[in-house]
């Protein structure tokens, strides 16, 4: 190395040093990740390197880029002097090479980035120029606009990567900020809980909680314990049925109904004394609001929005609690597509648990909670058909079937319908009773594609988990459920919409060892997505309440 440096000009030296810095960062990532991930990241490193080599020859070859099994340590050390550092930094900072060959094929480097199962320096620099929390931390080179050939009005204007979402979560939970001053007993309890969670005893080996599933298992366990011990929710008695207090327990919007039913029937976490409450619940159903008030074919939702606005006016006039915190200790749980719109205005201050957890429609990471969309076919038995085949009996690599809603699914089918025998990608399946063919396919597939429809969320995410099929989420700007607690990258695959062409490569690049580990994790995370008529520890009722509690404690606006 020393010998090499002497012959380089100053500028080249600087570039070389920055490249070496990046290489070291990559090596650090490799060291800090656990075994299956390291292998995975090695392939990522290798891929970036091999891609750079190709680009420096001004002849990008998509086929060779797709080879993700290059020996990483070998290539990153031996090749570093041979390649153009200019191109390297452009690849690393932008996630793509901005050149005249700007088409989907050139994006294979970012395909690798979506694979990385752990937050890493490489990914965290995939930034948007407007994200202020990263301002100044990385150079801006080129533009970072998604390169997509498909056209749709609904396409997000800005794509937020999962690692940026992680940063936003950290940022909005930053403990350095001073919380609002207040000396109420409830406020002191919240501060006490916060401090206890931040200083949680380290959990080395919890028999019940498998640590890779969580962002921080120690904090989660402590926070959950404190919730069980302390949390009190005041449910506003105001509001008429059916929009308020009425649980709808089946269908694709059932999550909000189950929550209403279970919290209203709960003694442990509720209080009739609002002065003792840490949280205030607005018990409405977004689905029943739509069913009750939407005028068919009117294409107007303003009456629904006004209805909710009026409700807030009523409770904030009648009780002092809204005004005390401007609604920030109030929460709602709503699964219908329109819920983000219905809860705009003053309700934006509330903690909103939403199925339609879309950054594009105002979801605030660290405050709002991504509510799992659970498709309940039988309210009597919400866990009907739970389970799936063991890994050895899953001959299908990837499965998707469904209506062609939205702009992503037609692209998915264009690339993958009837293309490979082990990929079952199709439109809706022929109808059979109980949807048994669909469920059988999920049970015998390794990966289940959860592509966005009209909205970012899909019941497939939870269905895949139920049938022990690894969810492959193709939905830009979708915040995955219970995001503040779960380490989604450890048991799911995220692919950007613009990378659908690489779906197969991405899945094939996942080693058998890593697949088996992910399968095990999906099985273990299942309990968090299940509704029970009588709630049990760590089930969806508790996890949802916990996420709301956790954001109540940690969110700093
Ligand atoms: C990578 O290369 C090194 C040395 O070139 C070798 O020892 C190692 O076994 C290789 N690893 C893989 C996974 O091929
Ligand atoms: C390491 O690099 C050399 C050339 O630089 C190449 O011939 C060899 O195949 C590489 N090893 C692996 C395991 O990729
Ligand atoms: C988890 O949180 C605890 C308490 O804040 C902290 O001491 C620990 O280092 C964290 N663990 C990880 C793996 O981040
Ligand atoms: C964790 O607990 C299991 C049994 O519950 C035990 O077999 C294993 O050795 C423990 N691991 C550590 C690191 O303590
Ligand atoms: C809360 O503030 C609003 C004005 O923003 C006011 O109209 C209302 O009367 C206040 N509520 C109470 C209970 O004082
Ligand atoms: C309360 O929140 C609204 C936005 O919903 C804001 O306009 C208003 O200034 C806030 N009031 C206080 C006292 O912070």
TrEMBL record:
Keyword Membrane: yes
Record bears the keyword Acyltransferase: no
InterPro entries reported in the protein's UniProt record: Exostosin (IPR004263), Exostosin_GT47 (IPR040911)
Exostosin GT47 domain span: 228-507
Keywords recorded for this protein, A-Z: Glycosyltransferase, Golgi apparatus, Membrane, Signal-anchor, Transferase, Transmembrane, Transmembrane helix
Subcellular location: Golgi apparatus membrane
Any single GO CC term annotated in Swiss-Prot or TrEMBL for this entry: Golgi membrane
Topology relative to the membrane: Single-pass type II membrane protein
TM spans (from-to): 16-33
GO molecular function, one term: glycosyltransferase activity
One Pfam family of this chain: Exostosin_GT47
Annotated segments matching region Disordered: 134-154
Source organism superkingdom: Eukaryota
Family: Belongs to the glycosyltransferase 47 family.
UniProt-recorded name of the protein: Probable glycosyltransferase At5g03795
Record organism: Cicer arietinum (Chickpea)
Primary gene name: LOC101498954
């Amino acid at each position: 190395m020393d010998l090499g440096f002497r012959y380089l000009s100053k500028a080249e030296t600087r570039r070389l040093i920055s490249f070496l810095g990046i290489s070291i960062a990559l090596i650090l990532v490799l060291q800090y990740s656990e075994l299956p991930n390291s292998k995975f990241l090695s392939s990522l490193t290798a891929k970036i390197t091999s891609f750079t080599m190709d680009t420096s020859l001004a002849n990008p070859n998509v086929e060779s880029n797709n080879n993700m099994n290059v020996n990483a340590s070998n290539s990153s050390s031996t090749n570093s002097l041979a390649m153009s550092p200019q191109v390297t930094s452009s690849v690393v900072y932008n996630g793509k090479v901005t050149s005249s060959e700007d088409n989907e094929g050139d994006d294979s480097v970012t395909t690798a980035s979506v694979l990385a199962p752990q937050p890493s320096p490489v990914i965290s620099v995939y930034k948007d120029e407007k994200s202020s929390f990263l301002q100044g931390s990385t150079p801006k080179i080129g533009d970072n606009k998604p390169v997509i050939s498909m056209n749709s009005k609904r396409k997000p204007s800005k794509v937020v990567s999962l690692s940026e979402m992680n940063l936003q979560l950290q940022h909005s939970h930053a403990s350095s900020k001073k919380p609002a001053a207040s000396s109420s007993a409830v406020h002191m309890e919240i501060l006490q809980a916060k401090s206890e969670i931040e200083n949680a005893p380290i959990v080395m080996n919890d028999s019940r909680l498998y640590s890779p599933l969580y962002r921080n298992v120690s904090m989660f366990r402590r926070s959950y314990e404190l919730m069980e011990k302390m949390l009190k929710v005041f449910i506003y008695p105001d509001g008429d049925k059916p929009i308020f207090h009425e649980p709808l327990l089946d269908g694709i919007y059932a999550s909000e109904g189950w929550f209403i039913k279970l919290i209203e029937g709960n003694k442990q976490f509720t209080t009739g004394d609002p002065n003792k409450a840490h949280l205030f619940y607005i018990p409405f159903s977004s689905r029943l609001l739509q069913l009750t008030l939407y005028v068919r074919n009117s294409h107007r939702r303003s009456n629904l929005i006004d209805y909710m606005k009026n409700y807030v006016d009523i409770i904030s006039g009648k009780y002092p609690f809204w005004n005390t915190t401007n609604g920030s200790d109030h929460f709602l749980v709503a699964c219908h597509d329109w819920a983000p719109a219905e809860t705009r205005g003053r309700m934006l201050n509330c903690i909103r648990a939403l199925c339609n957890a879309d950054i594009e429609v105002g979801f605030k990471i660290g405050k709002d909670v991504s509510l799992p969309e659970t498709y309940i076919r039988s309210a009597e038995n919400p866990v009907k058909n739970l389970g799936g085949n063991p890994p050895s009996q899953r001959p299908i690599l990837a499965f998707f079937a469904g209506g062609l809603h939205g702009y992503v699914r037609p692209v998915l089918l264009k690339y993958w319908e009837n293309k490979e025998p082990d990929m079952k990608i199709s439109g809706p399946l022929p109808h059979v009773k109980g949807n048994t063919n669909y469920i059988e396919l999920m049970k015998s597939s390794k990966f289940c594609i959860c592509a966005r429809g009209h909205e970012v969320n899909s019941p497939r995410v939870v269905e895949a988990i139920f049938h022990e099929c690894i969810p492959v989420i193709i939905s830009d700007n979708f915040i995955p459920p219970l995001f503040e607690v779960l380490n989604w990258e450890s048991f799911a695959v995220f692919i950007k919409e613009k990378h659908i062409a690489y779906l197969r490569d991405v899945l094939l690049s996942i080693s058998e060892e890593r697949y088996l580990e992910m399968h095990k994790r999906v099985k273990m995370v299942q309990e968090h997505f299940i509704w029970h008529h009588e709630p049990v520890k760590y089930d969806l009722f508790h996890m949802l309440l916990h996420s709301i509690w956790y954001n109540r404690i940690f969110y700093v606006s």
